[in-house]
Design goal:
Chain lengths: ~475, ~475, ~475
């Protein structure tokens, strides 16, 4: 057995019993995954996953960055090079390298997610190590060849009620259409992520604007046409199931400039002459514009700020984005969000979900804001904090100020499909551990805790994301 | 029973037994409340509290902001409008709305304070809900009509040894005089809070300065006269029992400009032409001036920085100050306090009590400062952090660096009179839980813990505030 | 008995048993102390320590700052004055003052270190208090006169395998030579700490540069000669055992200016005309230069940023450096380290160990950086955070992101020789408590925990510092 059935529950017997009872009441609820990065193509084509290395190592920046941090080269792990040059092609050798360094993951959520997948998805019951690496590889490989391990079969087995993917504004959403047209009942929806046409510092911004004009038939050389193009794309995304948009900016800055100033700023950024400050101001203005569109079309606005992307220039040059070198930084919310909140923060029918990579904001800024503004909800602990301790700190730092009902349930936010059940399980266990602590210390009645366990697992996500 | 008699104690039996023994030794000590916002008029007139909604909902920004955050309108809760326009007048309907949303408070200190009051002040023993709302209302209403529920009777029943209120520099302190002249023995003292005549950005600052001149007979058109006016008012406040002044600035900035530069700055801010930077500098200068006056008259200097007041322009315009939209922000202490500390920080007879809404400062800045400068003490966790987890984080982050004896005991800081026993009880339990943990992990001897339980509950506040 | 044999272990029996078993497996491992501030002269001359006050109070800023914070004068504790003026000379009176205030240390690591020394080094078994002060003094004094209490004897009794001291770039390293030439087997190595010739704001910087030139025979009036002089000194330090350099800057700023700009900047700072900004830029440039030299000579680069030294101007004027008035401030790492990391961060053979006094950086910046860049490791909790809660927060905030293997084992970082066993014992117990929690909550297998206990105590320090 790889996974302790009581893992993440408190050790003290009364607490453990309470946590287990709460967990038992919600562990079989279906999974709502309203924010993530799985590839819709998997479910459209329903082809088998190529091999264990492609499934667990090559695409997962949580995994390969840890190996890199201890001196393994990205090319030795098969991570593609930006110049298309040679990298390791043999999945068994990649797997072996991974297995040899598996001790690096001790105490990390990655270890927990991986071992949960190994056991509960693939039926392995001994720890991964250099010695058993090839046996494990062969075991997983043989399973991947079976129909029960095709993407749709796994989706059903994982008991996923809804899975949201994330597509850029220019995406043709063909895979989503293909899923819908296939008659398969799995519910997979898209999310509107327009960074490439909202962020003036994005690679190819000018070309992206032109493409946006073409795809929508709007004149994106004008501010009005540009906004109309967004509205058009949002409508198309809604037709493909989207209930939310998502925005990943370096800061939480917002602006509310007025139409004339905004139009002038758009001309600046369109010209390619914008300063870094102007680019940032433009991104800030667009959050407020997106919120106004949300008032009209009902999409939920998700803000994921604070990652300093591509911290290593060398890694970015050699391998491109999302290679484990995105590092959080301090993020201010109180001043940054004021223009947005002055514009739309009191709207009870708007939902803005805030995320953070700066945990100092939980108690100081985010919980006080969410505990006052009707439009705000707090998203779950994100990225580096999607973990037992991360969830514990989140609950401890926010609940006393904004309660549970200003939070938005769990997101797995993953591109590692097989980790979805594991991640939701960690969140469910962590929340039940927290609730049990409240019950046993007289801060919550037992009946309330059972209700909350259900809400944190299912009800809050369903409500916040209009699922 | 609404409140678990062992609430907030650790669950593990040895720890719980130790915490309970510590708590039993101090739970009946009288309450010292050296900082708060109760209305002295209550005790001067000793009239009955009007109704449950006026007592628990309408004046309590902790309560109504949470309802607002989930879409309830302030006007539907009877919160007065700045323009005097219509709001809900029916206290029973307000109470019903409150009861329907009571689940929002699950896991918050507000729930704990309210349920403690419901049970221990009013004798209710079932949880509030939509169904029982009117029965609870009637129950509380019938009690409020009884003599035992008049303000002075409750004050005595709560076993309050001293209650400090907070008045502006221009207040005539009539209620304090009326209490004193009444012959009633309850000890209620004022606190000097001169923000309206210290903060150039306060509404009506120029008029306030004129009024300060009038009230004191000093020429507040000069820097020397202005300082003399403060000295005069401080003396009057001392006559009305004050042992402390209090200052709520957006930052912890201090200055020590020298007389000439300070006088020139005073002319600027008096002219109404001061920039935001000059206004901030002036506030900073006044903290140092107040500290110098404290060296003469012995008043304790309390600094409560870091709240960005009135974050929502709309809520401020509609309803004015203190409506739950005050949001903390990052607060620097190390550079900000240096001018003040260079001036008076080594004075062993001065007491400056520092508060924070930025918990990151506890271990990084506040405990190192308080663990070195003789003039500094740390105030208890404030506002959003006046809670079990808030107190726990405070103790864990400060004790190892500045010990217990550089802290100043508990403040309830409340305008919700009936919550005073509840708040002190939460603090006592939380501190005993922390002490028990130290004892059972060999970090403190049991006899020391009993002494400390008494000090944290009573002795430190008495000493720090010269009570 | 002064020290609970189960101190710092969790209270719950299963957890405690697990923690104790882990601790038992590593408690007798030799001490590696790769970073600290003991005086090598003690071991060179092997003279007796003068008296209890000189051993425990006068040189220990942890101890005297706490007494100062409660109104005791530094001069009354025998702390030397900068002007050479009179201070208390009677060690027994200093000791008595210390004993009278010993309750101030309740709940602090200082209490734990002191009581561990009192019991385990000196055989005392009753708590220090005013009453027993002189008896304790006499007891310790009588022991200090015995051969078993000479520095080398204690070193051996403490089971220290290696002790690193810290010397300035201009130090002649005579004591290290004297130790080596004595034939004594104790392994004491130096560390290259060039702040006085790297920081343009250091007292006597110009003279220091001249001295550096003289000592090395290099022309330190040129950038090339200055760098060569560093290389020369590093080589000499290596001959005296150094495996690391150490750098204590106010910020973590780094630069990588290119040779020409760096040379021009060196001319500026050498001229004494540099602005504060230029001084800071120069310190930043030198970190990158030191890292490049590390690539050549293999010394580990330690960065200890974030202390605002000598916060009280008065204390600095009266008593000089290191008098307990060094206060941490916010420290940014993500932007600050980028030039250094772009230059050398991907080098697998380089080791840069990062420390912080700003705990908010653990999860937000340091763990993500160390979990990606091969050259980076995290140093243990430093200074104010070298404590049970400090270690707990460090592990909880970093392990989930960068694992254990991107950390560098424990440092005692002390000038209080007798506290070395106590400090390592606290770290060992704290780590075992953390590991036990992981085991009992299903986050780590027991066998892994035993391996990790050994690594955290011994293996990681040995590897990170090339011992």
């Amino acid at each position: 057995m790889l996974n302790d059935p009581d893992r993440l529950f408190p050790v003290e017997p009364t607490l453990r019993e309470t946590a287990r009872a709460l967990y038992d009441s919600i562990k079989d609820l279906p999974i709502l995954s309203p924010h993530g990065h799985c590839d819709p193509r998997w479910f459209a084509e329903n082809q088998r996953f190529p091999n264990p290395a492609e499934l667990f190592v090559i695409p997962d920046h949580y995994v390969f960055r840890m190996l890199v941090s201890q001196g393994v080269a990205l090319t030795d792990l098969g991570v593609p090079r930006a110049d298309g040059g040679a990298t390791e092609r043999d999945p068994q050798r990649i797997w072996q390298r991974f297995a040899e360094k598996f001790h690096l993951f001790r105490g990390t959520p990655s270890a927990m997610w991986l071992e949960h997948s190994f056991e509960h998805v693939f039926g392995l019951d001994t720890p991964l190590s250099a010695e058993v690496a090839q046996a494990h590889y062969d075991h997983i490989e043989s399973r991947l060849a079976q129909p029960a391990y095709l993407p749709r079969a796994l989706f059903e087995r994982f008991n996923i009620e809804l899975l949201a993917t994330t597509e850029g504004a220019l995406d043709d959403l063909r895979w989503h259409r293909m899923i819908r047209d296939s008659g398969w009942q799995g519910r997979i929806v898209t999310t509107y992520r327009p960074d490439a046409v909202v962020d003036p510092e994005f690679e190819g911004f000018a070309e992206n604007l032109a493409a946006l004009g073409e795809i929508t038939g709007e004149d994106t050389t004008t501010w009005a046409g540009y906004l109309a193009a967004h509205r058009t794309r949002r409508a198309v995304f809604k037709e493909h199931g989207a209930t939310a948009s998502d925005h990943g900016h370096p800061t939480a800055r917002t602006e509310d400039l007025g139409a004339e100033a905004a139009a002038a700023l758009y001309d600046r950024v369109r010209s390619g002459q914008a300063t870094a400050e102007e680019a940032d101001r433009f991104r800030g203005q667009m959050l407020t514009e997106m919120a106004r569109m949300s008032l009209d079309d009902g999409l939920v606005l998700q803000i994921h700020p604070g990652s300093r992307r591509n911290h290593s220039a060398t890694v970015f040059d050699r391998h491109g984005r999302d290679k484990g070198f995105d590092i959080p930084g301090r993020t201010d919310y109180v001043a940054a969000l004021k223009p947005l909140l002055d514009a739309v923060g009191l709207e009870p029918d708007l939902t803005i979900i805030l995320f953070t990579l700066d945990e100092t904001a939980y108690g100081r800024e985010l919980a006080p804001l969410a505990g006052a503004y009707p439009a705000l909800k707090l998203g779950p602990p994100w990225w580096f904090f999607d973990s037992y301790e991360g969830i514990k700190r989140f609950r401890e730092a926010t609940t006393e100020t904004c309660g549970f009902y200003n939070t938005a349930g769990f997101n797995d936010d993953t591109r590692a499909f097989c980790s979805i059940p594991a991640r939701h399980d960690v969140a469910r266990r962590s929340d039940c551990a927290y609730l049990a602590t409240l019950v046993c210390t007289g801060r919550l009645r037992e009946a309330e805790a059972f209700e909350l366990a259900h809400d944190l697992t299912y009800g809050l996500a369903k409500a916040a994301y209009n699922l």
